[in-house]
Amino acid sequence: MKEYRITDHDNEVKMDILNDTDFMAIFIDMFRELPCLWEINHPHYKNQTKRKAVLDQLLEIVKQVIPTADMTY
Asked: What Pfam families does this protein's entry cite (predicted)?
């Protein structure tokens, strides 16, 4: 994974990250590996506690790129 440097222009950097095909490909691959978020027949799909834990894992990946990233539930 590329290393990213966050500048003073957080909003501009966030948009650049969203357009970065390397980052998005990695993020999508990771999302695919977490079927409890998208596979409705997965045993943990309806378990909000497990889903939140998995979403927190994804958030940690995003925080490597955007340190101020957070999630509102």
From this structure: MADF_DNA_bdg
